[in-house]
Amino acid sequence: MAILQATARLFADRGYEQLTMEGIAHEAGVGKQTIYRWWTSKGALVADCLLEGLLLPEGIAPDDTGDIRTDLVTWLHKIFVLLESKGGPALMRSLIAAGAESDDVGGRLGDTFGTSSFLVERFDKAVAVGQLPPDAPLQQMGEALLGAVIFRTLTRAPADADVAARLVDVALGPRLADDGIRHGDLSE
Amino acid sequence: MAILQATARLFADRGYEQLTMEGIAHEAGVGKQTIYRWWTSKGALVADCLLEGLLLPEGIAPDDTGDIRTDLVTWLHKIFVLLESKGGPALMRSLIAAGAESDDVGGRLGDTFGTSSFLVERFDKAVAVGQLPPDAPLQQMGEALLGAVIFRTLTRAPADADVAARLVDVALGPRLADDGIRHGDLSE
Amino acid sequence: MAILQATARLFADRGYEQLTMEGIAHEAGVGKQTIYRWWTSKGALVADCLLEGLLLPEGIAPDDTGDIRTDLVTWLHKIFVLLESKGGPALMRSLIAAGAESDDVGGRLGDTFGTSSFLVERFDKAVAVGQLPPDAPLQQMGEALLGAVIFRTLTRAPADADVAARLVDVALGPRLADDGIRHGDLSE
Amino acid sequence: MAILQATARLFADRGYEQLTMEGIAHEAGVGKQTIYRWWTSKGALVADCLLEGLLLPEGIAPDDTGDIRTDLVTWLHKIFVLLESKGGPALMRSLIAAGAESDDVGGRLGDTFGTSSFLVERFDKAVAVGQLPPDAPLQQMGEALLGAVIFRTLTRAPADADVAARLVDVALGPRLADDGIRHGDLSE
DNA sequence: TCGTAACCGAGACGGTACGTCTCGTCTTAGG
DNA sequence: CCTAAGACGAGACGTACCGTCTCGGTTACGA
Q1: Which part of the chain is the HTH tetR-type domain (chains A, B, C, D) (predicted)?
Q2: Does any strand F atom come closer than 7 Å to the Cβ of C32?
Q3: Which residue of C has its CA nearest to D104?
Q4: CATH code (residue D46)
Q5: Total domain count, chain B
Q6: pLDDT at B177 over 50
């Protein structure tokens, strides 16, 4: 639908706050009523954009190196780079604001990130090949990772280089050497 | 300042979106210009409320039992209970929205939760008494915990009972028995 | 046609301003396009209602007493009573508004009131029996009477009792006694 | 007030129907709310324009020749000429529509035309100098004249030349010669 | 008997204007 | 002199209708 594309365009340009129904209608060459006929609110509209994948860049998921830890670090790092790029924080915060203000968007965010994402596949595979124990709290590991990203976005924390590695360490548990002693460069 | 109290009252009642400068001015018995003289935006106003502790309930921090894991689970559980209570999710989401939309609020949230909180003290003490290794990524552990709470709030995930325990397991790393095998009820 | 009846019903209920094509279509159980197929505008629709006599009450014309003056006063009085009744002024003003806004309705009003009405017959008869001179400006006398009614409706003037008599005096010219002196209770 | 002037300008250009609050606001360089703060409706706005004399041309009243009949015919004729001119009928019908739809405008029309006008002065003087009997129904004579003009406007009757004379004859009563026989060119 | 065409109801569409709301600035009267 | 009160220009909100435009579904006629 042209409306969704117009919404995505304006959302990326201006953010959620500045997004207006009138602007969308005009951008899409559509009457306002046509939007209200199909969506109950700005939130629902943005949620559908999310569902259609019009808001988030694709191709974040890195290649599978066989090592879950490496892959996660690469993935997180890509996200951080994206968040440091121009417009990245604004888009992310707009999404968070939209999710906070609208049940539709919030639920959709959960669906998009929580269940159907790269993380789920990768975690499942890691369990299958024995890199993670079968009783690992996969759900919470994902929440911890994604939540940390959101938290850092909210608090405007700059994403320095090895935060990604440390976060993965937290999520997966520390690497264990044969002697059971933790290793890793965790100094900050 | 009466303005901050009025802001906090209306914020708690109506949330961030419904909060209006005119409403605050009227509630505080003050001219709008007086507000604009001291704060540049709604966000700055809310950020100052946050700083004064007018928005968040006190006394979440549980007693120190000596065991960091127990204390964290208790603390998380209290938060979850708060989030399940009437008005809890709305207030939390309003805070998130405010943080997303306003740099002031976002930064203040970071200060409030990230540096000056219960978590920092508790983590530091755990390191001191050897419950955590000295090189533990404390910062990221906190981000993971708080971020997960935010993520669950955003996605409207209901906070069932042992999510708290699992999240703490993720954050602290699993409990290790003498044999180096993880234990815990992590099935979901 | 069901459409005309629906139009008349809604016109009587709500007036010309509140009359909407969509309302008529719905009331008549008809698609909007069907109305637009047969009538070009709301005005044309109302004009046809007028032509069919669906908008105005019938039977205003009083019995013929033989005296033109008496009959006119009775007729005017009936009109005034109608105008004082519930919904009377609203209907009349709606008609005026419709006539002012739509050439169709205006022309039809002229036909209905100006040429085919009680007044024409009555005036003609009065001329025939010698109650009015043969060169009397019948057209203008009618305009004066009807126009005065419209003017009073527009200006919301209450129709007190002997306005009717005075108006008829104006239209017919004053009664003349043998001595050529005017008589009549014309004090106001 | 700039708002009233803008209203008058647009009313004269476009008529009452096409008059929009948004158009007025824009034309006056004013926010819509400012209009709504001071006037409850389009009607009230137009009524105030009327009161300020912004809608009607001035200088209709002719010189006083001493003969009421001549003056009235001249006056009526001027009105008819105005009504034949470009935009004349549209303005008049817009006024009528406005008066029909809005109590404010209707009442003001009554004030403007019915009580404070040229007619009242002229009639009073005619009574004073004996051209009209002291008990003449002046009010109704005025209503008849103005009403006839309105009626002719509504019905789109073209205002041919001697309609004015005939209307005045109706309003004043026919001229009486010494022999009590009516005279006048009343053929149509 | 069966297309096929006209006409229907329904209602989505791109628009305009509505009247309300809030923004951030500007003005004013009174303490 | 500062403040409360609130008017102001601006413009988004969600609603009501406008007049146009497809849609299927049903008669009803001509082949």
Answers
A1: 1-57
A2: yes
A3: C155
A4: 1.10.10.60
A5: 2
A6: no
